[in-house]
Design a protein that fits this description.
Elements (H helix, E strand, L loop, with lengths): L2 H7 L40 H13 L4 E5 L2 H9 L7 E5 L4 H11 L5 E5 L15 E7 L11 H10 L3 E5 L4 H4 L9 E5 L13 E5 L2 H14 L5 H11 L2 H20 L4 E5 L9 H7 L6 E6 L4 H10 L4 E2 L9 E3 L11 H6 L6 E5 L5 H12 L1
Parallel strand pairs: 2-3, 2-4, 4-5, 5-6, 10-11
Antiparallel strand pairs: 1-7, 6-7, 8-9, 9-12, 11-12
Helix pairs in contact: 2-8, 3-4, 11-13
The structure holds pyridoxal-5'-phosphate (PLP).
The site of pyridoxal-5'-phosphate has 14 residues, from helix 3 and helix 4.
């Protein structure tokens, strides 16, 4: 089955009771047992719920994995991965990553004795210097949030395998429509399904997908033991979102390209960060591991001024100034004060997240309207 068919049918079956094409929302905590322990596969909804199972099966299908696990948020999914580790273990993560991930690693898990190294991974060989016997996990985002850096998944996976280290890829920005990290050698794919998978800015949910039974069992144990699961209604919404992922992503990519090119040719814009540009530092890798370049574009206006960035985001009318990304509607964000505010200024500026940076999640509206909005906002 090819990808566009998998989004709709992958690992799905019609409801057994009445043949409903979409799975029912099983809004129940518990399930009748005929004698203690005898039930129809479901005992309690933290452990499993049929609507969540339908979503988890779909997630496994679209990422070419064998097991999917759905959580109450992207952060809950990341939290579950780090709980595979123990005190004394070390993690190597990209220095340019979602602020909430940085906060979870440094403000929560460092206190439990896990050590994190945040490094640039534009060249995978930079990893080697940080690997020792304690290194148990490599955590990457590609494209990175918000600088749109590209990391060579295959090259990082080769190094991870050589040292027997788990590789987890946050695939939120790319989605499986653009890249499938498990096929490139990653062990775990993570999603903030709140973004493109849900796609309509109406549900917060996280996901993990793996292709190894033992790893799936360990993560399932953590999912059930820690309990950060999503409810059936939210599972249903993400399952519905996934069914149109491919058509939405196609338009996100078209509009993202048009916006990136418009900004690059604008006399008042200094820098535009988008992996589709031929002179993007890792464009060749992006071209190889991604099908297209996505709908996320970051930029800095000439003068590198905080006040000008704020003026632009306040002037935007069709692009809503808001946290999050990946919905059908276009959003604009100011990473330094919003999504990345939890990263200390010196740290975030090292990776390019300056006070003048604006991040756009380009939606699927008519491109002429989006360009006209940017035109009037930039002035
Ligand atoms: N990873 C990335 C790349 C994100 O952008 C986000 C949220 O913005 C997360 C993880 C966290 O996901 P959630 O907000 O669903 O907890």
């Amino acid at each position: 089955m090819k990808f566009n068919t998998k989004t709709i049918h992958g690992n799905q079956e019609h409801d057994k009771a009445y043949g409903s094409v979409m799975p029912p929302i099983y809004q129940t905590t518990t399930y009748a047992q005929s004698t203690p322990g005898a039930h129809k596969g479901y005992g309690y909804s933290r452990s499993a719920n049929p609507t969540r199972t339908a979503l988890e099966n779909s997630l496994a299908s679209i990422e070419n994995g064998t097991h999917g696990l759905a959580f109450g948020s992207g952060m809950a999914a990341i939290d579950a991965v780090v709980k595979l580790l123990k005190s004394g273990d070390e993690v190597i993560a990209t220095s340019d990553l979602y602020g909430g991930t940085y906060r979870l690693f440094t403000k929560i898990f460092e206190d439990f004795g896990i050590k994190f190294h945040f490094i640039e991974m534009d060249n995978a060989s930079k990893l080697e210097a940080y690997i020792n016997v304690q290194t148990k996990l490599i955590w990457i985002e590609t494209p990175t949030n918000p600088m749109m850096n590209i990391i060579d998944i295959k090259a990082v996976a080769t190094i991870a395998k050589k040292h027997n280290i788990l590789l987890a890829v946050d695939n939120t920005f790319a989605t499986p429509y653009l890249q499938q990290p498990l096929d490139l050698g990653a062990d775990i794919v993570m999603h903030s399904a709140t973004k493109y998978l849900g796609g309509h800015s109406d549900v917060v949910l996280g996901a993990l997908i793996v292709k190894d039974k033992d790893l799936a069992q360990k993560l399932y144990f953590i999912q059930n033991a820690s309990g950060a699961v999503c409810g059936p209604q939210d599972s249903f919404l993400v399952l519905r979102g996934i069914k149109t992922l491919h058509v939405r992503m196609q338009r996100h990519c078209e509009n993202g390209k048009a916006v990136a090119e418009y900004l690059r040719n604008h006399p008042k814009i200094e820098n535009v960060y988008w992996p589709g540009f031929e002179d993007h530092p890792n464009h060749i890798i992006a071209k190889e591991q991604m099908k297209d370049y996505g709908g996320m574009v970051s930029f800095v206006a000439k003068g590198n001024s905080y006040a000008n960035a704020i003026r632009i985001v306040e002037n935007l009318k069709l692009f809503t100034l808001a946290e999050s990304l990946g919905g059908v509607e276009s959003l604009a964000g100011h990473p330094a004060s919003m999504t990345h505010a939890s990263i200390p200024k010196e740290e975030r500026e090292k990776t390019g997240v300056v006070d003048a940076l604006i991040r756009l999640s380009v939606g699927i509206e008519d491109i002429d309207d989006l360009i006209a909005d940017l035109e009037q906002a930039i002035g």
